[in-house]
Amino acid sequence: MDRAQKEELVTSLSEVFKNTSVVVVAHYSGLTVAQMQALRRQMKASGATVKVAKNRLAKIALEGSDVAHVASLLKGPTIIAYSSDPVAAPKVAVDFAKANDKFVILGGAMGTTALNVDGVKALATLPSLDELRAKLVGLIQAPATKIAQLSTAPAAKLARVFGAYSRENEAA
C-alpha cells in the first residue's frame, strides 16, 4: 500500500466510525477463505459490513470518533464489523462465533458506550429494527381487527338464534 491508498483507507474508515451506530471487533485468525466469505455474505444479507484493516490505520481512523475506546481491542489479526442497525452486526457476529470457534469476539461499541463480549451478546439477543417495526404494525392493526370482529359478532349471534328458532319450528 502506498501513502495515498493508506490516507484513503483512513478517511473511509473514519467516515464509517462516525456514521455507524455499532462496531464489533473480533479475532479471525485460523478462519479459511470460505468461512470469511460466508461471514461477509451473512453480514451483507443483514445490512452489516465487515472490514479487515491494519490495526495502526484503524487506530488513526478512530481518533476523534465516538467509538475511539475500541482502539484498545485492535491487537493481532482483528476484523471490524459495523452496521447502522444496532443489532445486525452483533447478531451475525455472535451466530458466526457459535458456529466457528476460531472467530472470537473481543468487544465493541454502540455510540459512545463501550461493549464487552457480554454486551455484544446482549445486543445480539434483541430484535432487529425490522422485527420491531413488524411488531408495532401488528399492534396498531390488532385493535382495528378486534373492532371489526366485535361489530360483526352481534349480527352473527342473531343469525344463529333465528336459525335455531326456525329449526325448532320445523321440527315441531
UniProtKB/TrEMBL annotation:
Alphabetical keyword list: Ribonucleoprotein, Ribosomal protein, RNA-binding, rRNA-binding
Keyword presence, Cell membrane: no
CDD domains: Ribosomal_L10 (cd05797)
Superkingdom, taxonomy of origin: Bacteria
Organism: Ancylobacter moscoviensis
Quaternary structure annotation from Swiss-Prot or TrEMBL: Part of the ribosomal stalk of the 50S ribosomal subunit. The N-terminus interacts with L11 and the large rRNA to form the base of the stalk. The C-terminus forms an elongated spine to which L12 dimers bind in a sequential fashion forming a multimeric L10(L12)X complex.
A GO cellular-component term linked to this record: ribosome
InterPro entries referenced in this protein's UniProt entry, alphabetically: Ribosomal_uL10, Ribosomal_uL10-like_sf, Ribosomal_uL10_bac, Ribosomal_uL10_bac_type, Ribosomal_uL10_CS_bac
Family membership: Belongs to the universal ribosomal protein uL10 family.
Gene behind this protein: rplJ
Biological function: Forms part of the ribosomal stalk, playing a central role in the interaction of the ribosome with GTP-bound translation factors.
The protein's name: Large ribosomal subunit protein uL10
UniProt lineage: Bacteria, Pseudomonadati, Pseudomonadota, Alphaproteobacteria, Hyphomicrobiales
